[in-house]
């Protein structure tokens, strides 16, 4: 799964809109929308912020792994 699909799925799973997530990672809603559409590559700093915001592993966000958290119960 591509990171664009992952970030959209995470947002929908948490019942958030693009503006809420954009505010959480300190970007404009239009910028975040472009991230989800794949029009603009997400900077690593924003990927880190998204992983922290959703409390998931970076490898999950980036699509490298299907495991939400590499160390369950931490």
UniProtKB/TrEMBL annotation:
Pfam families: HTH_3. The keyword Metal-binding does not apply. SMART domains: HTH_XRE. Residues 7-61 form the HTH cro/C1-type domain. Keywords: DNA-binding. It comes from the Bacteria. PANTHER family: HTH-TYPE TRANSCRIPTIONAL REGULATOR XRE, TRACRIPTIONAL REGULATORY PROTEIN-RELATED-RELATED. This is Helix-turn-helix transcriptional regulator. It comes from Faecalibacterium longum.
